[in-house]
Design goal:
The structure holds two protein chains of two kinds. Chain A is α+β, with helices and mostly antiparallel strands. Chain A folds into two domains: about 1-35, no CATH class; about 50-430, no CATH class. Helices cover about 25% and strands about 20% of the residues of chain A. Chain A has helices spanning about 5-20, 70-85, 175-190, 235-240, 245-250, 270-275, 280-285, 325-330, 370, 375-380, 425-430; strands at about 55-65, 120-130, 165-170, 195-205, 260-270, 340, 345-350, 355-365, 390-400. By secondary structure, chain B is an alpha+beta fold. Chain B has two domains: about 5-120, Immunoglobulin-like (Sandwich), CATH 2.60.40; about 135-200 and about 245-390, Up-down Bundle (A middle domain of Talin 1), CATH 1.20.1420.20. The chains are: A alpha+beta, B alpha+beta. Chains A and B meet through helix 1 of A and helix 1, strand 7, helix 11 and helix 12 of B.
């Protein structure tokens, strides 16, 4: 970090310390940014970006590892961890920042986030099943639950939008901050890993905290009303975090994942043009909730539990048997719940003038075999909404636990710095 | 970040800050503030520990300024920043060994500047390089210039041969010669680019032209030798050149290539070390944006010959400065060595300049991706080359 930026950070730190404990300005943002809000802690038992109150934007990138050397892969994860520790706290990617350092060298940060606030940036890393082949000697550490997802009815998956050895989910309230983070991580990866696909998302479609209002998906309906929320400690242990018992039951040594979780992503295109020609009656019947309030059709308000036994005229259930809310509900699925964290996307249009738009579904679960596959099998086969949906991308990754508090190494200026022994994501996997 | 970690960070920052403001104490961050005004050259400290030093030079005066770190004889330049406009700041990052130095600001860029002594104490940190860098770089420049002369010599001979076949209507022979002769051009393209007009005259692609611009050079002849079907030619049937046009275009190709040969062999021709290393990066940029996408040789599909030639040129550029790089940053030298090797190994799988390469349109999407990844892998460390030799 440059002295100028460093001084800026120092004063922002002082202001933040006085005001709210840990308000960092973006280090290169000059004199501004006494923002106490907008910074998500990087270290902790679990990675950030899971139970973190869902930010407004997402940029997710999947990578193919191109090296065959294990030490290079470890080096990349170490570099990424330090960069993420810096970027999420509002600092530049490297110690010099975008506008200083040797004049004949490219700057160590690309610079487009310089004057932007940290925007609650989080970076979350996961490992795909393909990483556990013969290349890096990890075959014996493959968790049993890191399966190859089965073909679900109606899947129309594009291999170029699926899978990847590594995944990085960047979430922020400003898309430029999220893209900046992925761009700098991708730059650090050249020679070790190359981008396989990326997805930009906007308009979070889930609330992950009881303090957030429920947002809407591109069908215009509230999404994620019954989501697992950050405040539900017991539900998180039961449905999201991988417990020590999982490793005990595994044939392979998967203890490295204890405290982690699994990230399931599905790129779901919505046929919004035909949906928009559908009557309100049918739209509500397909979803099983009212469009305005989001209340179940059995009555009440948004957070009223649906009552699938309530019938109307002709003894037909008020919440139809093939409605989305009924088929996805925990009571229909042996009580399992997911922590959903999806985003809307619009990737231009197709040749017929229709928007290539939909939902980038993201869920964090403790075991996809019990918490995702059965639910998706039911939905793909029976959900009446499937007429308007097409799954075009897919991936499953094991998300290692977080970087423990107080273990980051710092440089002479007191900011996170790379060291030969600095902690990194998935360290236990490579131990 | 946890609250305890944040608190530790604050404490660290305050300590470091205290270090920075104290006048004569070495800066804890290694950053030394320099403020240059019309009559003052103020340094935040007069001494620093050996290793990587960063002088942050701010021009507080009304004139353009410069900052020099000179050897204790006050003559030999260790490192410098030039052209710092009023109100601007720029970093000078230098590897400094223990010893006595002279720091000088030169507001207005004239005279001896405002000087003061500067001491580098021994921190125990190993600082290279040990040789005389200026001498090593001068040798590098001479050796690179010799390489350029050798390549243009082969280029003009081959171009004449190609032109003869082309004019004689021996298109098979011309097609055979096209890619192997162009190799000598592609190896030293940054040199040709340094002569301004010659590059577009000799090497413009049809897609580079604006409406009304006259097209000439290699790719015009490429299109004639590999005439496209109407679908690949904007829906229009390709019209072959007349015999007279063939002759004129071939003559112009030889004539303009001879201009390059003459310029390179002229007494004024030099190519400085930073141009050599920037040229290496540019060669790889060419590969990344034009060749690995198949846009350079859109009709002949001989892009892999160009890729090999660009990589050859970049490797020579690296090799002439290798000693300096290795002394200054051995990890970078190792990295470059390995990345050059990996890319070369990958290319060798598709052929060689001597035996011919696979044509671009015969490569699968995965093969192109693999090449692009290897090019990116080399380009990233290569972008650090210039700063490494200018900071050495």
């Amino acid at each position: 970090m440059s002295r100028r930026a460093f001084l800026g950070l120092g004063s922002a730190l002082a202001a933040g310390a006085a005001a709210a404990g840990f308000g960092l300005g973006r280090a290169t943002g000059g004199a501004s940014a006494p923002a106490a809000a907008g910074v998500v802690p990087f270290t902790g038992a679990h990675q950030a970006g899971i139970t973190t109150a869902a930010q407004d934007r997402m940029y997710t990138a999947a990578f193919d590892v191109t090296t065959r050397r294990r030490d290079e892969l470890v080096g990349l994860l170490r570099t990424w961890t330090v960069m993420a520790a810096r970027l999420t706290q509002g600092m530049a990617a490297g110690p010099f920042g975008p506008a200083s350092g040797p004049y004949d060298a490219p700057p160590d940060d690309t610079g487009e986030a310089s004057d932007l606030p940290p925007a609650n940036l989080t970076l979350t890393v996961g490992f795909g099943r393909s990483l556990f082949d013969e290349r890096f000697g990890l075959a014996g550490r493959l968790p049993g639950a890191l399966i190859e997802l089965p073909h679900f009815a109606g899947d129309d998956l594009d291999p170029a939008r699926c899978d990847g050895d590594l995944v990085v989910q960047a979430c922020a309230d400003d898309p430029q901050v999220a893209v900046h983070a992925i761009r700098n991580l991708a730059r650090a990866a050249f020679g070790v890993a190359a981008i396989r696909w990326t997805q930009l998302g906007y308009g979070r479609t889930s609330s992950t905290s009881t303090t957030q209002t429920t947002p809407r998906n591109l069908f215009g309906f509230k999404d994620g009303t019954a989501n697992v929320k950050a405040e539900e400690g017991e539900a998180l242990e039961e449905h999201v975090w991988v417990g020590a018992s999982a490793a005990a039951e595994d044939s392979a040594d998967s203890s490295w994942l204890t405290g982690g979780t699994y990230l399931v992503a599905r790129r779901i295109r919505m046929h919004i043009e035909t949906w928009d020609r559908t009557s309100l009656r049918e739209q509500e019947a397909l979803v099983g909730r009212t469009k305005g309030e989001g209340a179940p059709l059995s009555g009440g308000t948004e957070f009223t539990e649906p009552d699938f036994a309530v019938t109307g005229r002709g003894d037909a259930p008020l919440v139809p048997a093939d409605s989305h809310v009924r088929l996805a509900h925990p009571t229909t699925n042996g009580g399992v719940r997911m922590l959903r964290r999806g985003y809307n996307f619009t990737d231009g249009n197709d040749a017929l003038g229709r928007l290539d738009a939909g939902l980038f579904f993201v869920a964090f679960v403790r075991d996809p075999r019990t918490h995702f596959v059965p639910v998706q099998t039911t939905l793909s086969a029976q959900d009446a909404l499937m007429e308007y949906l097409q799954h075009t991308g897919s991936g499953l990754w094991a998300v290692p636990p977080g970087i423990p508090d107080g273990t980051l190494r710092t440089g002479a200026d007191g900011t996170p710095a790379f060291a030969a022994d600095s902690p990194f994501w998935g360290e236990a996997l490579f131990a | 970040m946890s609250r305890p970690a944040a608190a530790a960070l604050v404490a660290g920052a305050v300590l470091a800050l205290a270090g920075c403001v104290a006048d004569d104490a070495p800066a804890a961050t290694g950053a030394i503030a320099v403020t240059s005004t019309a009559d003052e050259c103020a340094l935040s400290t007069a001494q620093a520990p050996s290793g990587t030093l960063t002088f942050q030079v701010t021009n507080g005066g009304p004139d353009v300024t410069e900052f020099y770190l000179l050897a204790d004889d006050g003559l030999r330049v260790i490192a410098e920043v030039e052209n710092v406009g009023p109100g601007l700041s720029r970093d000078l990052v230098v590897q400094a060994r223990p010893g006595s130095y002279v720091a000088a600001c030169k507001p207005g860029m004239v005279g001896d500047g405002i000087r003061q002594d500067f001491t580098v104490t021994d921190s125990g940190v190993e600082v290279g390089p040990t040789g005389d860098v200026a001498e090593q770089l001068a040798a590098a420049e001479a050796s690179y210039v010799a390489y350029v002369k050798d390549q243009v010599g082969a280029l003009i001979t081959g171009t004449q041969e190609f032109a003869d076949a082309f004019v004689a209507g021996d298109d098979d022979a011309a097609r055979e010669l096209y890619a192997p002769v162009r190799v000598h051009w592609e190896r030293i393209e940054p040199v040709a680019e340094s002569f301004g007009d010659l590059d577009p005259i000799l090497d413009a692609r049809e897609a580079d032209l604006v409406e009304g611009e006259v097209w000439s050079g290699w790719h015009l002849l490429e299109k004639e030798l590999w005439p496209p079907a109407p679908a690949a030619n904007g829906g229009v049937k390709y019209t072959p050149l007349t015999a007279a046009a063939r002759e004129a275009e071939a003559a112009a190709l030889v004539e303009n290539t001879q201009k390059l040969v003459d310029a390179v062999n002229g007494p004024a021709f030099t190519f400085e070390a930073f141009q050599i290393t920037n040229g290496a990066k540019e060669l790889l940029d060419e590969v990344a944006t034009g060749k690995v996408t198949g846009e350079e040789e859109i009709w002949s599909h001989t892009d892999l010959w160009d890729v090999q030639a660009n990589v050859d040129g970049a490797r020579i550029a690296y090799e002439v400065v290798e000693d300096v790089v290795r002394d200054a940053d051995s990890a970078l030298a190792d990295d470059l060595e390995r990345r050059f090797g990996e890319l070369q190994e990958l290319l060798a799988g598709y052929g060689s300049i001597e035996t011919g390469f696979t044509y671009y349109d015969e490569l699968s999407a995965d093969e192109v991706r693999g090449l692009a990844a290897a090019v990116d892998a080399l380009s990233e460390p290569l972008s650090k080359l210039t700063a490494t030799i200018t900071g050495a």
